[in-house]
Amino acid sequence: MKKIIQTNNAPAPIGPYNQAVLKGNMLYTSGQIAIDPKTDNLITDDIKAETKMVMENMKAVLAEAGMTFENVLKSSIFISDMNNFAAINEVYATYFNEATAPARETVEVANLPKFVNVEISMIASL
Q1: Which overall architecture, per CATH, does domain 2-125 show?
Q2: DSSP letter at 35?
Q3: How much is the pLDDT for 14?
Q4: What are 51-83's pLDDT values in tens digits?
Q5: Helix (H) or strand (E) segment spanning residue 64
Q6: What pTM value is reported for the model?
Q7: Where are the domains of the chain?
Q8: End-to-end CA distance of the chain, in Å?
């Protein structure tokens, strides 16, 4: 049976989906964007600040499921401009131990929800 994971410490979904779903010991998160859950404001002025907000939102979703970034097996990063890769990667790297970092792909896409610059989803396991 699947368990829906929902926290007020991350933005509410903007469509017919949940923040995450736990099935057994596997957690599948929806993509997080840089909506500040305290103000509902988008943070898109600075790519590093935007990425930090995305990662903080993901941290809150993982915490609600009783996990941390150490539990993450795979990340998917979607970005609107590959020129932002280095800045995004710099912030992303601060959330992981390089020796145990998850598998990952980074894909440039034409557009993202609310025309943000970065969206990140993860798969984690207890």
Answers
A1: 2-Layer Sandwich (3.30)
A2: B
A3: 85
A4: 999 999 999 999 999 999 999 999 999 999 999
A5: helix 47-64
A6: 0.97
A7: 2-125
A8: 16
